[in-house]
Automatic annotation (TrEMBL):
Thylakoid as UniProt keyword: no
Gene3D superfamilies, A to Z: Phosphoglycerate mutase-like
SUPFAM superfamilies: Phosphoglycerate mutase-like (SSF53254)
GO molecular function terms noted in the UniProt entry: alpha-ribazole phosphatase activity
The enzyme's E.C. designation: 3.1.3.73
The organism's taxonomic lineage, starting at the top: Bacteria, Bacillati, Bacillota, Bacilli, Bacillales
UniProt protein name: Alpha-ribazole phosphatase
Source organism: Paenibacillus xylanexedens
C-alpha cells in the first residue's frame, strides 16, 4: 500500500520557523501481546506499564513542550500519566487521534481472519474495502488530516515562541495514526515505511519555508541525553 506524502501544507497565518512534533505510541496492552486487532476497543495497559514506560518518562523529563495532545482512549491516557505527569490539566484530548476502527475484526488475529475473503481484500486494498462495522480509510485519514492541519500546521497564537521561533508538541496516540501522520509530513515516506513499537517516540521536525511546511525525521532522544 502506497500513500502519497503531503509534504507541502499551506497556511495563511504566520508561525514559528520550526516545530518539533514528538509522536508517542502508547504502551503495551494485552491485545498487542496477543497480536489482536485493536482499534476503538478501550482497554488499558499491562500491569507493568510504569516499568515499561520509565525510560520514556526520563527522556521526556528534559523536554520543554508547549502543547500536548492525546487520544481519548484509555491506553493513551494511561501512557500520558506515566510519561508526562506534569501535563495533567494542560493536555488536549482529541478523539481524532484514535486508532482506526476495525469493527467486527476487533479482538481477532490474522490467523483467525486470513481465510475471510473480505479481510483478504482489505489487506490488498484498504483504501477501497472497509472492515464490517468499522471505519473506512477515507474516514480515518480525513479526521487525521483535519487534526494535522488545525492543531499542528496552522499558526495559532498559543504556538508562537519568541526565542528561537521554535516550539515542541507532544502527541500521544496509536501506531496507525503515527504511520499515517509521518507519511503526510515527510516527502516520499509511505504508510508502511514507519515501524513504531509500543512506548516509542518518533520526532519529526517541521521547517517553514514561505507558506509551506517541510518535515524530516530526527533522532530522539538527541545524542548525549
Amino acid at each position: 500500500m502506497v500513500i502519497k506524502a503531503g509534504n507541502e501544507v499551506h497556511t495563511n497565518q504566520p508561525g514559528p520557523l520550526k516545530r518539533n512534533i514528538l509522536w508517542v505510541r502508547h504502551g503495551t496492552t494485552l491485545w498487542n501481546v496477543e497480536k489482536k486487532y485493536l482499534g476503538h476497543t478501550d482497554i488499558g495497559l499491562l500491569p507493568n506499564a510504569k516499568e515499561e514506560l520509565a525510560p520514556l518518562h526520563e527522556q521526556l523529563s528534559g523536554v520543554s513542550w508547549h502543547e500536548v495532545y492525546c487520544s481519548d482512549l484509555l491506553r493513551c491516557r494511561q501512557t500520558l500519566e506515566q510519561i508526562l505527569p506534569d501535563a495533567s490539566g494542560k493536555v488536549k484530548f482529541d478523539s481524532r487521534l484514535r486508532e482506526n476502527d476495525f469493527g467486527q475484526w476487533e479482538g481477532l488475529t490474522y490467523d483467525q481472519l486470513k481465510d475471510n475473503p473480505v479481510y483478504r481484500s482489505w489487506i490488498d486494498a484498504p483504501q477501497e474495502v472497509t472492515p464490517p462495522g468499522g471505519e473506512s480509510w477515507q474516514e480515518f485519514t480525513g479526521r487525521l488530516d483535519s487534526f494535522l492541519q488545525e492543531m499542528l500546521l496552522e499558526g495559532r497564537p498559543s504556538m508562537h515562541v519568541d526565542e528561537g521561533r521554535e516550539s515542541t508538541i507532544v502527541v500521544v496516540t496509536h501506531g496507525g495514526v503515527i504511520r499515517y501522520a509521518l507519511s503526510r509530513l515527510i516527502a516520499g515516506l509511505g504508510f508502511w515505511d514507519t515501524h513504531v513499537v509500543p512506548g516509542q517516540v518518533i520526532q519529526v521536525q517541521l521547517d517553514q519555508q514561505g507558506n509551506q511546511w517541510f518535515g524530516s525525521r530526527v533522532t530522539f532522544p538527541p545524542i548525549g541525553l
